[in-house]
């Protein structure tokens, strides 16, 4: 039955019964339904469309034994109907004479899911073709709903009735035809397709597990239920009057809301779309999807975009969809050249973002800069917008390595001092984004940075830093990397030998006075100290900490101080310092050692 252009209730049988192409437009996301939506669909089919079959299966509990005749099957699906939402489409006037084409404006997830379910039924029926007399007849009937029987003219993808270019068309084709297509797009699609990580694959595996126990007749009944009893409202648009992208954005919140990145992609590429050259697809694959892959996923990529777009703003852009709203408000008329410039900027600087967020893996060529980036990351205080702005200027040649190192070192001192003093970081969202633009033209950029720190009341004096290191708990169980970094830097400062130890082998933070005191330690300290309300804080202060190996940490455990000293090696300067101390190891001794170590800290993280 040909599909007309009027609004009407339709079935998927009507949608798929003729040679047709439902194309997912570029502004749409990839397939993204998840287990919650899939489970709901299966539950609805068996509860609302096939309740009699479900009850019978529960009673018999013999799912591999055929009990339903062909006549029963043909009559059954007419009993029930179930509303399955709307599908909004835009007829394509440039369709070829063989295939009628529609752009899917809304309803992509529904139509792709049903299309793949029919393909899964066909796959399972092929595996059981000799089990039931009507199986091959079922296969022949259902294949016409998933395959266009046409001459593909050098592009096998034309055989698909549902077509997407967002990395989904190759896995979809493989599910239906079980071989690679002949297509000029194959090499690109093979680069985009990551087996088992693609959501098409995830759904295919889920559906296969759900349906593996269905009998042949129940597979066919299930296919008829979704083809004939699931009702959708068919809403065709007018190509001359309607803006499909604007309508899509207004509708998408009713299903699974688009992420900021999906909305941004749609908006950025809108000026670049050329249906003749298809050049936008190459740009999207190489620069946009390439950047997402480099960021190791959309979540990290969104964080990158947020920080990149926040540079030179008076404050950080809001999270999630606020990123898109901010960008759209600031770029209401996006030209092709402007869109391309922004896409290039995103692709050109993703490596710098990785150097900031994963400096141990993506190393900055300058070793000193890389070392500073590692330590800045270990503070776990976000300053990415400022750090990214610095590295972008360095890459462009506006900042030399000396100025870059000076700025990053000042940043590190600021972050460490304020973190140790447990000062608020809320002001950072308004301080960092526009900071570099305010100091970039100063002859002494580090000095200008410090003046800004003072002006914004973010300065931490030596005295404040000293008192915090002596009296506050440096060790926090949730932040071992920061504590380890502080101890390592102090240990390096204390080393008298030319060669530093391998800190990867002495990476465990040791509490000299144990965190949990046994009876021997309680007797050793006396009741006054054991009951002192400040003891817990002092135990976690810098004076009671050192670095040893994990094995040594397990070995010394809650040993008395004198026994611990003898067990410590001379590899670490911090443990050598402990071995030289002869006083009783109590709160007073810990405070004294804290004061000694603070002097080293002041030298390392000096203004």
Description:
The protein is α/β, with parallel strands linked by helices and 607 residues long. Helix content is 55%, strand content 7%. The chain is built from 31 helices and 8 strands. A hairpin with an 8-residue loop joins strand 3 (82-91) and strand 4 (100-106). The longest helix is centred in the middle third of the chain and has 22 residues, at 336-357.
Observed structural traits:
alpha/beta; 607 residues; 3 domains; single chain; 7% strand; six-stranded mixed sheet; 31 helices
What are the SSEs and their pairings?
Elements: E1 8-11, H1 12-16, E2 20-24, H2 35-49, H3 51-60, H4 70-76, E3 82-91, E4 100-106, H5 108-127, H6 135-143, E5 162-164, H7 169-177, H8 186-192, H9 199-211, H10 216-229, E6 230-236, H11 244-251, H12 260-269, H13 279-294, H14 298-310, H15 321-330, H16 336-357, H17 367-378, H18 384-396, H19 401-420, H20 428-431, H21 435-439, H22 445-455, H23 462-471, H24 480-494, E7 508-511, H25 519-525, H26 527-530, H27 535-539, E8 545-548, H28 550-556, H29 561-567, H30 573-579, H31 587-604
Parallel strand pairs: 2-4, 2-5, 3-6
Antiparallel strand pairs: 1-6, 3-4, 7-8
Helix pairs in contact: 5-6, 5-9, 5-10, 12-15, 13-16, 14-18, 16-18, 17-19, 18-19, 19-22, 23-31, 24-31
């Amino acid at each position: 039955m040909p599909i007309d252009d009027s609004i009407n209730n339709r079935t998927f049988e009507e949608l798929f019964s003729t040679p047709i192409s439902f194309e997912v437009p570029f502004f749409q996301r990839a397939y993204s339904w998840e287990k919650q939506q899939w489970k709901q669909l299966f539950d609805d089919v068996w509860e609302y469309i096939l309740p009699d079959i479900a009850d019978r299966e529960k009673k018999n509990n013999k799912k591999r034994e055929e009990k339903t005749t062909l006549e029963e099957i043909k009559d059954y699906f007419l009993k029930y109907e179930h509303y399955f939402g709307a599908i909004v489409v835009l007829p394509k006037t440039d369709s070829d004479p063989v295939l009628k084409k529609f752009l899917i404006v809304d309803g992509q997830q529904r139509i792709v899911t049903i299309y793949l379910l029919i393909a899964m039924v066909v796959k399972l029926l092929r595996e059981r073709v000799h089990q039931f007399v009507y199986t091959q007849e079922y296969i022949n009937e259902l294949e016409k709903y998933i395959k266009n029987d046409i001459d593909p003219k050098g592009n096998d993808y034309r055989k698909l009735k549902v077509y997407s270019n967002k990395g989904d068309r190759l896995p979809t084709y493989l599910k239906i035809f079980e071989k690679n297509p002949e297509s000029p797009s194959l090499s690109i699609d093979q680069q985009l397709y990551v087996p088992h990580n693609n959501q098409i694959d995830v759904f295919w595996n889920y559906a296969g597990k759900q349906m593996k126990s269905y009998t042949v007749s129940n597979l066919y009944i299930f296919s008829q239920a979704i083809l004939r009893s699931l009702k959708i409202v068919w809403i065709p648009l007018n190509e001359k009057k309607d803006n499909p992208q604007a309508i899509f954005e207004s509708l998408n919140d009713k299903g699974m809301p688009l992420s900021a990145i999906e909305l941004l992609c749609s908006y950025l590429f809108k000026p670049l779309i050329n249906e003749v050259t298809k050049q936008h697809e190459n740009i999207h694959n190489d620069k946009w999807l390439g950047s997402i892959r480099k960021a190791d996923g959309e979540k990290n990529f969104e964080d990158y975009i947020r920080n990149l777009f926040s540079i030179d703003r008076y404050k950080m852009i809001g999270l999630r969809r606020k990123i898109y709203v901010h960008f759209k408000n600031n770029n209401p008329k996006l030209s092709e050249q402007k869109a391309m410039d922004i896409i290039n900027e995103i692709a050109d600087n993703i490596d710098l973002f990785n150097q900031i967020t994963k400096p141990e893996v993506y190393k900055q060529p300058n070793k000193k800069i890389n070392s500073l980036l590692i330590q800045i990351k270990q503070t776990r205080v976000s300053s990415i917008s400022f750090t990214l702005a610095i590295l972008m200027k360095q890459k462009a040649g506006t900042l030399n390595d000396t100025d870059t190192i000076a700025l990053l070192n000042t940043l590190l001192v600021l972050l460490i001092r304020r973190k140790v003093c447990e000062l608020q970081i809320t002001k950072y969202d308004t301080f960092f984004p526009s900071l570099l633009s305010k100091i970039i033209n100063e002859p002494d950029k580090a000095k200008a940075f410090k003046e800004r720190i003072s002006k914004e009341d973010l300065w931490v004096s030596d005295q404040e830093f000293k008192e915090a290191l002596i009296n506050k708990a440096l060790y926090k169980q949730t932040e071992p990397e920061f504590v380890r970094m502080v101890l390592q830097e102090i240990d390096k400062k204390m080393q008298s030998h030319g060669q530093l130890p391998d800190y990867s082998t002495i990476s465990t933070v040791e509490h000299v006075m144990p965190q949990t005191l046994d009876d021997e330690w309680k007797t050793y300290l006396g009741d006054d100290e054991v009951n002192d309300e400040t003891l817990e804080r002092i135990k976690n202060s810098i004076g009671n900490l050192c670095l040893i190996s994990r094995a040594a940490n397990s070995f010394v455990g809650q040993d008395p101080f004198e026994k611990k000293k003898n067990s410590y090696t001379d590899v670490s300067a911090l443990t050598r310092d402990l071995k030289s101390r002869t006083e009783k190891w109590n709160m007073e001794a810990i405070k004294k050692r804290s004061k000694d170590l603070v002097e080293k800290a002041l030298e390392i993280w000096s203004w």
